[in-house]
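Quick entry, no commentary yet.
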Amino acid sequence: MKQITPKYIVSGLLALALCQNMQSCTYLDKKPDNLLTSDMVWETRANAESYLNQIYSYIETPVDDFTTLGASDESSCNIPVVNVRQMAVGNWNPQSMYWQHYWNNAYAAIRQSFVFEENIDKVPEGALSTELKVQYKAEARFLRGWYYWKLLRQYGPAVLLKGTLGLNEDFNKYPRNSFQECVDYINSMMDLAAADLPVVWSASSNYGRPSKGTCLAIKSQVALWAASPLWNGNPRFANFKNKDGKALAPLQNDANKWQLAADAAKAVIDLNAYKLFTNLDEGDSKFDPYLSFRNLFLTNWNNEIIFSTHKADTWHWGHEKRSAPEPGGIAMMNATQNVVDAHLMRNGKTIEDPSSGYREDGFVATDDPADWGKSRDGVNRGYIAGNSNMYVNREARFYVNILYNGKPILPAPTADDRNFFSSDANKDGRGRAEFYYSGKAGLVQNSNSADKTGYLAQKNVSPASNIRQDRAVYRPYIHIRLAEIYLNYAESLNEVNPSHPDILSYLNLVRQRAGLPKLETVYPQVVGNKDEQRKWILRERQIEMAFEGDRYFTLLRRLMMGNPASRAIYRMNIASNDNNQGFFYQDFYKRNLLQNRYWDDKMYLFPILQDDIDKNTALVQNPGW
């Protein structure tokens, strides 16, 4: 079979069948569709593979609609009509159509996975080998588990279908399964799939497919979710029951679930199939923490990646447009002051630590002596002369993740391209982002579309792209990588045995790739203290996984989304007139409250669309909705 490609080319017959399926009136569709199961569809390898590719096509990413990014404390969105803006003010309910695609698309994919598994053996042996049929069935089972996992994370307990529905099926026979039943089913799908998949794929033609390692990584994610406070004896769900009284949520805290989560993460690690990416893997002779972290996302199919998928040719272009300021970009992915402040100094200390060297007054006189990125880009990617001292001597991940006022714009490869983003007085070939009031990316020139925080998310942006010319370098989207598994392991193990040496060992591997000293070297008093280690693990996760969709779900599972610190979103003082002082206007660098976001505990779960509740009388709505 050919590589899972970014465009899903389906024959006319199959396209019609899929189209009819996706237009079904309910997620529990049982409408007969002769085309879907017609022998004509399964007569050729091409049609069968196109059908499987269609199931893959429902896989979503955090950058598809910005929900998991803009709903957490790491970012905001400058465009009023984007759905997540309604979440932030509490303007959504079971009648809202904003996010129906999550539920509907997942079940469409699940239905199709059953159809595929039930019919793939019809393809003639001469057209498709038995070996490939076994592999493709494994992929379909993985995808079924994947989509149930996404439903569980977004909506809680789902309705577990075990096959395609017959014509005479009664919807009332399909209430929601319990949380644990969903966990067990997802794990069973991953185990079945893993048995017929390689540990990793060696041939590039199979890149984009799940492997045994991917299946184990999903089990790690699910186990961490099940162990965390949201679903481990949460009293908020005490009355979350089906109409027959069946409890849908675990009512008692089970400390052993943390051990299960630690074991699940360690199972991935023990495969010895993955490694943290560094610039040395690209042939450089000198370790560069900036390039190591930046190019992790720009080096296709590298050895840190556990699962990534091809996306349509437009996703990376759209992502970079949303991550770039005006006039070439649309400045949509506004990083918050919250996530900026979470990043560490390069000595490994927090900015709150008086001994860290952090300053908020004045401007630096010289360029960063580290010269991060210079060996590859020919320019310094750390701080530069004239930057606010707020941004001086920060860790390498800060310069990868954040575009701040005065930082050169990344996807602008020539001096002429960079000058395009600069006011006349600043056309020096550096292309520094002008977020200040009168700047080219500021409020005066872009009142409706300007960045709203004084920052943009810059992770996963390529210096080889050119926003001015609407040209972006292709790359697959990374869904799971090894650093996340290390953090899963450290977090889970800390809840079981905070003195276990593996906690700091694996946490430090992530820190050291970022160029930071070991945690125990910087803060020895943290060692063995469960509460303090937990704070550090979650902070490292906030930084390492920034803008990858993880922060939103971490705040949910840890019951931290309703905390005042998670709801109060801060920015720079972008609306203050700089009086032509530009980058050197000191008042710009004062924190302002952008928004105190609305929160209700019912928002720990998405509501199920009321239309589906009405059509399936066995289906109960999520608590509070």
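second:
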Amino acid sequence: MPEMTQELPEKTVKRIEEPAISLKKIAQLEADSEEIKKDKDVEMRQLAASMVQIEANLKITELEADLVDERERNRELERKIAETKRKNDDLETQLNRTMNLLDLYRDGWSYLAKTASWYKGFGQWMTFDEAEAYCASRKGHLVSIHSQEENDFVWKLAKNFPANRSFWIGLKRNLDKGNAFEWTDGSSVDFTNWMVGEPDSYTHAVLWNDKGKWGVDPPNEEFQFICKRDAEF
């Protein structure tokens, strides 16, 4: 039988080659699809990471807002604590002052509202300087007198002692100022109540409890005395 050497038609060859080209395209498409899938996975991971970061940022923002609120609450609490402490301190100061005033009253001191001062007569016999030092130990001075009302108040205290007694008051001459009188508490000499003929040449003042008038005596004489102290201490 004779050999068949006739070549296939051109169209037949093309039909045979076409499946090979399609496989290449499929392979390329699959490769492209795999690359797209990888890119998509990367994007999804990045998106997920971004969402986690956003949630973390939101949480941080919420925590910061809570922290600001907590700090404000703490500041308000501190203000209330400070206000309460101030009120307690004021109450304690007032209580201490009241107790001190009560102690003065119990100790025989008398209060004159016009001068806002406390007064007390003492029966010990002392020189002028000793009496002033004793009054200072009681947080006061020998009494200074600045009105007739105050003089009468002091005189009333002096009359609680036996009659015809002299009481040191805080008025004395200052030899360095032309023998001018001055009060030991440093207040101004704006009132006097001298007995007729007084003051003479002596230097330190006394109040006589029989008439409420003033005279002068030597400072080394010993008399009873009256102290005066402020209500505030």
